[in-house]
UniProtKB/TrEMBL annotation, chains A, B:
InterPro entries: NHR-like_dom_sf (IPR035500), Nucl_hrmn_rcpt_lig-bd (IPR000536), Nuclear_hormone_rcpt_NR1 (IPR050234), Znf_hrmn_rcpt (IPR001628), Znf_NHR/GATA (IPR013088)
Gene Ontology MF term list: nuclear receptor activity; RNA polymerase II cis-regulatory region sequence-specific DNA binding; zinc ion binding
Organism of this sequence: Adineta ricciae
BP GO annotations: cell differentiation; negative regulation of transcription by RNA polymerase II; positive regulation of transcription by RNA polymerase II
Occurrences of domain Nuclear receptor (ranges): 90-168
Keywords: DNA-binding, Metal-binding, Nucleus, Receptor, Transcription, Transcription regulation, Zinc, Zinc-finger
Lineage: Eukaryota, Metazoa, Spiralia, Gnathifera, Rotifera
Annotated NR LBD domain residues: 211-454
Name under which the protein is recorded: Nuclear receptor domain-containing protein
Length: 454, 454
DNA sequence: AGGTGTTCACATAGTTCA
DNA sequence: TGAACTATGTGAACACCT
């Protein structure tokens, strides 16, 4: 087929319009720009053969997109229908009643309320005064929403807008990509590095090496393959019929977990190379602390609240366990709160959890028990711990920059102390329970060791 | 200015083309679609006065966008340049080394790794086997990244990809807008409602009324204007020079907070209408619990970790306070962990915090102190508490649906109990400290009352 | 000039299809 | 499987108004 000449005329010349509109011209499409409905419907119904536009070549992608949009037709129909439906039915700004554009700062709201909250969210509500005489009771409606700052901002908060949905400067920088490598641009990095350099013989100065990456890869892989069922499978609940069954049930489930932890530890060369006595001591005095690290990791949703509620049955079961053992004890509060605190610090970071487990394992004297025997080769243990601590440090530096890592480390150290305190009192608590209920024969030997019974 | 008639003719009719092209027609633009270069250059150089298109009215936004895009021209150049620049330099997929498209699931990665993780993140790593003989040590590089599932998924985790960044079904539904009003579409709502209806005389069945909204508005406004400085101002730290100064300093700062709380309570009509004795009793026995609710709200960044670290100085100061008072006590752990737990439950929701404060205020017997005297008008207190509980319930239902609200309520009730336990032992702790240090004369009367000293 | 509200640009979720 | 798409919700910028 011979190529036809195709042209577009865009005109406001009345003579020409009249001339063309009056007689039927073949192979010609007419769009009356003054009749928006016609424009819309013609484009949407694809009654014009727009596809010939696709024959155009060498147009850059931007223009391609324009034509593409014009060419897609029935999809836009759907979309338009849906959008119209939505907008006319339920997309109402909860603050001013205007047409909402979506969720802004966690509240269904319009663009102006979004902008307003973004501007004023950090202002002091106390310093703003209600402009009208109706004391802080101005109606915020579409027409006069910008009359009174005080009442508008207040309504934003009242409808649930959250200042914490406003990105911090740090978060903006990361998004913008100026800081895709957060470890490069940290301005105060030298300062902090030096602090550590002075104390710690420069072990914290490098970044992650290729070798470190392989170690992380391996560790994390081992950790996940050993414990994944623990995280994703349905948690088995403790039998709560009475104290005896509860204790035995607890002992059995923790015996399983302990075996998994030991299996994991034995994959670490530095641990496996120690002599048997030292391995035994490290397990005996540190395993209880490891429980809480591993149990606080779970791989559910990011949303804090929903994740905790998904775990609710498990938590409730745990609470009742302590309650069955000793209703007057506040052991439960201590344990569960430590776990919640750790969940925040560990922040669902699998690498962090798997490394921290090893670091805790190699802790000497962590149990703060005066009876803890000396290690034969405490130097190796110290070296191993330093090595993994360094890897963890570098991993976090690489991931989130030095400033944040510094703070996170400080807090993790605090938590390790809490973890230890908690383990000690838990050990006493459970020992008392076991003695009182005379279930010692039914506790597995491994758990007896961990509880320092034998 | 009178509106001109504007039209577009698209034609392949040679007669018409010839006719128009041969004579100069005013107010008309001609585009020859067979000469792509002409089309491109005309569009890009904007030599056609497209702007008259802006005169079009009532076109829907989609079409506006098409025209708008046609009007923009040189900006795309810039953008393309910048994107190329970035992508060629520093955007390397941390998993396979391919060109990254940005952060996916918290790791700088390419589109294929993004899709891969999205597909397999919830698979069991243990069940996947490493395909090659190199045991779980396959190199994941651009060319052969899809060889071994096991090692690829593992590397995703190792580089820090997070399953919790994958939206849950619930979150997707909310975004898509099918559930802009979460209270409408809840399938199991009747079931839960009935549970509550049976127990609670149907008070939980309605949705938020206009009147409720005004109450929320007022309450939340009062709360914010009274406590905002507490949240946003620089927290004043406790003087830690020695135990005596620490206790006095603690007493003074909490005296201020107590006065603010009382000020807030007196804005509640139901409280103000009680007789003086009842008001006194409620304050005396409940104020200590209220401290922890109010202090656990802060309005910093959403990011969990960064927000906690911003608060770190305050937390550390608090820890040292307990340490100065009694280094052997684990009071600190209890208090701080309760606060961290509450921060999660209250989820930075200002309305929730302000209502919960009132609900706790109206609690009778919350202090679980056998000596707590009976109220004169306990019915009014009960009614007030029911009223605000109902409003809170409806607010949460409206915001997040019934299922989640049910779970959140259950957990909040648990926390209220913990809060009470904590308050009681805190009262004992601080009383012991005050007696031991003989600082009772320097403790303000209000704090003495709250501590049940007087 | 500073406040307001619309629109643009962008990041990163999910989704689709060859 | 992975490139290319859509969708949502951020911040930023602009044109307008007082
Ligand atoms: Zn609005
Ligand atoms: Zn990749």
């Amino acid at each position: 087929m011979a190529k036809q000449t195709k042209m577009i005329f865009i005109t406001s010349n009345e003579d020409l319009v009249h001339q063309i509109a009056s007689k039927q011209v073949e192979d010609t499409h007419i769009i009356d720009l003054d009749d928006p409905k016609q424009v819309t419907s013609m484009i949407n119904n694809n009654s014009i053969n727009w596809t010939f536009l696709a024959g155009l070549s060498e147009l850059d992608s931007k223009n391609d997109q324009i034509y593409k949009r014009a060419l897609d037709s029935h999809q836009d129909d759907q979309e338009k229908q849906r959008k119209l439906l939505r907008k006319s039915i339920d997309l109402i700004c909860k603050i001013c009643g205007d047409r909402a554009i979506g969720f802004n700062y966690d509240v269904l709201s319009c663009s102006s309320c979004k902008a307003f909250f973004h501007r004023y969210a950090h202002q002091d509500l106390k310093k703003l005064k209600c402009s009208s005489r109706n004391q802080n009771q101005c109606k915020i409606v579409n027409g006069e929403r910008s009359k009174c700052h005080r009442c508008r901002l207040n309504r934003c908060f009242a409808m649930g807008m959250r200042t914490d949905f406003i990105l911090s400067q740090e978060e903006i920088q990361r998004r913008k990509g100026f800081e895709k490598n957060p470890n490069i641009s940290s301005t105060n990095s030298t300062c902090i590095s030096q602090t550590f350099n002075n104390n710690d013989k420069n072990i914290f100065s490098e970044s992650l090496t290729a070798e470190d990456l392989i170690v992380i890869d391996t560790i994390q892989s081992d950790f996940l393959s050993i414990f994944q069922n623990q995280f994703e499978g349905s948690k088995e609940l403790i039998d709560l019929t009475d104290r005896v069954s509860a204790l035995i049930s607890w002992s059995e489930s923790h015996n399983k977990l302990a075996l998994l932890i030991i299996k994991y530890c034995r994959l670490i060369n530095e641990f496996e190379n120690l002599n048997a006595d030292d391995r035994f001591i490290l397990i005996k005095y540190n395993l209880l602390s490891l429980f809480s690290v591993i149990l606080c990791y779970n791989c559910k949703s990011r949303n804090q609240s929903s994740s905790s509620y998904q775990e609710y049955d498990g938590v409730e079961n745990k609470r009742q366990f302590y309650s069955v053992c000793d209703p007057s004890s506040d052991m439960y509060t201590k344990v569960i709160n430590l776990m919640i605190s750790s969940m925040e610090t560990l922040n669902q970071d699998l690498v962090l959890v798997s490394l921290l487990t090893i670091i805790l394992l190699f802790s000497k004297g962590l149990s703060m028990n005066e009876n803890e025997p000396l290690l034969n080769d405490s130097l190796s243990v110290y070296r191993a711990q330093s090595y993994y601590t360094k890897i963890l440090w570098n991993y976090l530096i690489d991931k989130q920059g030095e400033m944040k890592t510094y703070k996170q480390f400080t807090r993790m150290l605090t938590e390790i102390f809490q973890r230890q305190t908690c383990a000690t009192i838990f050990r006493e608590f459970i020992n008392i329970q076991i003695k009182a209920s005379q279930t010692i024969d039914q506790i597995t030997p491994l758990i007896q060791t961990v509880l320092h019974i034998s």
